[in-house]
Amino acid sequence: MKIKKGIPLIDQHDKNGMWGGKFGGSFVPETLKKPIEDLTKLFAKLRKDKSFIGERDYYFKNYVGAPTPFIRLNNLTDHLGGAQIWAKVVSENPGTAHKVYASLVHCLIAKRAGKKYVITDTGAGMQGFNLAMAAKKFGLKCKIFMGLRDFQRQQSNVRKMKKYGAEVVTVTSGSQTLVDAVSECMRYWVANCQSAHMVVGSTVGPNIFVKICGWAASQISRELKVQLKKEFGRVPNKMKLINCVGGGSSAYGFWSEFIEYNKKQVQLIGVEAGGSKNGKLHAAPLTNNSKLGILHGAKAYCIQDSDGQISETESLSSGLDYPSVSPLHCFLKDTGRASYTSATDEDALKAYELVSRLENISPSLEPSHAFHTAISLAPKLNKDSLLIVNSCGHSRKDAEIIKSRLGYYTA
Ligand SMILES: Cc1ncc(COP(=O)(O)O)c(C=O)c1O
Question: Against a cut of 0.70, is the pTM above it?
């Protein structure tokens, strides 16, 4: 299994849509084959269409506010001693998370496809809020599927989705989290694929959804490359790009431009959700060497029991609370290009506390998992090393959880 140079990773799949012949694919019911084929053809055409790319870039600049800041965290660096810590503050956009990119791109595609409404799944509510906001901008109707448990713990985002006129459908099956929301959204699409455009909230699902989401989120690493060259004159050596991994879209978006670099120059570290330090459940399939399974139309490593049934997961952070992961990350793991570890709920809370106390940024619980890894690594490295964290979400959505766990919350 090898990564090719000069070709984006999203395009390195075989004719069955599988990366490394093993991950991904498009395992869907017969009724979805034609809509998926149509979307695949449309996306292939739009990617080469200069007017579409112009439109995307116009809105990246004038809607997202690209580029998002790239800053050195001086206080945190001095406090820890050792490697320099930097952040790409992706949360500094109107959608306060990286979900803004794919939401925007999907709405532009839906318009070109002549669809009147968009549907999606959401866990942390960031995907739902961002799609609701983009749909409103482009005059599309929007329906969002959200597990009841997430609906209750991410109320501020529910209010935002409703403010933008979206219909929020609570899902009461299974664990009432992201995994059930994705299943319900896909079921709805099977019955309504003629009129609705489906948006999958991460680089998961049937092959075409992995590709569109990854393509949209790659804006993060395109910006970072320019910012690195401006700051250091080149892409520096001894750089580690650290990102949390739920489905894996922010990590893919943060890494995509750097995947073909030598791993001694640019190391890619993914941080999954390890759950509570006292609990048995987690949401870290890559760290725990979970077996291959099929979930939501794709083959990937999934947390499952000995009969192959998808297991329950647990994480304080709704955005990472998912039993599987993108086929892109399974491929990156098996090729050895990226390495994966996990952080517990308690680690993430401590990292949130330290970063938001010392710096003028306030990461949500998802990127706080990545900050934990950076904070642990920094003192062991010298000041020539660069640890760059994708601060892909703002803590505001987690205010109630943080307050209940730490006794206070300041944005
Ligand atoms: C702020 C934030 N970060 C990270 C994630 C995890 O998703 P992904 O791994 O696709 O980036 C989510 C998902 O909802 C999120 O809202």
Answer: yes
- Which pLDDT score is estimated for 411? 79
In tens, the pLDDT along 33-67 reads 999 999 999 999 999 999 999 999 999 999 999 99
Domain range annotation of the chain:
32-60+98-214, 67-96+219-406
Predicted local distance difference test score (pLDDT) of residue 1:
83
pLDDT in tens, 191-201: 999 999 999 99
What's the CATH fold of domain 32-60+98-214?
Rossmann fold (3.40.50)
Give the per-residue pLDDT at 364: 98
Tell me: domain 67-96+219-406, CATH 3.40.50.1100, correct?
Answer: yes
Which atom of ligand 1 is found nearest the CA of 248?
A: 9
Of the CA atoms within 13 Å of residue 35, those in its CB half-sphere come to: 23
Instruction: Give, using CA atoms, the residue closest to atom 7 of ligand 1.
Output: 246
Tell the residue nearest (CA) to atom 12 of ligand 1: 319
Would the CB of 249 count as within 6 Å of ligand 1? yes
How far apart are the C-alpha atoms of 17 and 322, rounded to whole Å? 22
- CB 202 near ligand 1, within 6 Å: yes
In whole angstroms, what separates CA 222 from the centre of its chain? 16
